[in-house]
Amino acid sequence: MVYLTRVEHFNAAHKLYNPKWSKEKNETVFGKCANEHWHGHNYELLVTIKGNPDPDTGFLYDVKALSKLIEQHVLDKLDHKNLNLDVDFMQGQMCSTENLAIAIWQQLQPHLPAAVQLHCIKLYETPRIYVEYFGE
Prior knowledge:
Structural class: alpha+beta
Order of helices and strands: EHEHEHEE
Number of strands: 5
Strand content: 25-35%
Oligomer: single chain
């Protein structure tokens, strides 16, 4: 089994705010992340796939094709967007990094060929905070 990771980058704004709660409770739970005027991050996205190399090419998957899939199904929808307002696949859910990693998985997984499996979405919100999602 070979694991191949593609690293990408995007910028996006969001706020963490539960509409069922008061402004005070949101500020207590989410702190500065509940700022009514939003806040942004420079996200670092690592997409790891796994499988066996093709005997003819030696590749697990064409990295240019993987980059295009990520760009088309994720980056074009997220980069320089407001996650709460502009991103269709984030509508109706809390725009946490955890939920965003799951949603990115769901955007990519159906578009990979059968011989390639999505192994991990690793998403850095800051250089010191990241989440990993393995499709479980």
